[in-house]
Design goal:
By secondary structure, the chain is mostly helical. It has one domain: Rhomboid-like fold. Helix content is 65%, strand content 6%. It has 7 helices and 2 strands, in the order ααααββααα. The protein has a two-stranded antiparallel sheet. It holds the Pfam family Rhomboid. This is rhomboid protease. It is found in: Mitochondrion inner membrane.
Length: 193
């Protein structure tokens, strides 16, 4: 079976977007079952992550996570000589899962078909990381283990350090942007693009 990786390159030289496959892979799924599983996990953890980060920060983290996990997947595949497409959606979902489990390690979780068995979020995160590390080291092809690990590590890093380093330090940039936009709209009476 031949796999084709879709890459988008713009032919318009005036366009500022040169390449967007890693961002677009944030929404890529291998099958309907893969998409359903990812959407169930996202639905299960979405209220917690939005409560932690807020809507705007969640969207920024989710899209960044898709790009970062796709990049980690591509690097791992290049290192092992496997030239297959990367699906960043699972990595972005792993970021959400890891962020919530890192911030709330004592929260009780259960598997949908086995609700009688509960475990802590911290234990679940350790098990998932161990599974994906083994999968990457042993060359398993069941999941994109590199994308999962990249997403999980990014989620853990972001809620531990990234919020302080990135999100809180964006205030001067946002303020400068608004001042620049306000000044440019004041000249000539209209908006400038």
């Amino acid at each position: 079976m031949r796999r084709i990786m879709f890459t988008y390159f713009t032919s318009d030289p005036s366009s500022k977007a040169l390449c967007s496959p890693m961002l677009l892979s944030t929404f890529s799924h291998f099958s309907l079952f893969h998409m359903a599983a990812n959407m169930y996990v996202l639905w299960s953890f979405s209220s917690s992550i939005v409560s932690l980060l807020g809507c705007e920060q969640f969207i920024a983290v989710y899209l960044s996570a898709g790009v970062i996990s796709s990049f980690v997947s591509y690097v791992a595949k290049m290192a092992t000589g496997r030239f297959e497409p990367s699906l960043g959606a699972s990595g972005a979902i792993m970021t959400v899962l890891a962020a919530v489990c890192t911030k709330m390690p004592e929260a009780k979780l259960a598997i949908i078909f086995l609700p009688m068995f509960t475990f802590t979020a911290g234990s679940a995160l350790k098990a998932i990381i161990a599974f994906d590390t083994a999968g990457l080291a042993l060359g398993w092809r069941l999941f994109d283990h590199a994308a999962h690990l990249g997403g999980a590590l990014f989620g853990m890093w972001y809620v531990t350090y990234g919020h302080e380093l990135i999100w809180k330090n964006r205030e001067p940039l946002v303020k400068a942007w608004h001042e620049m936009r306000t000044k440019s709209t004041g000249k000539g009476g209209g908006r400038s693009n």
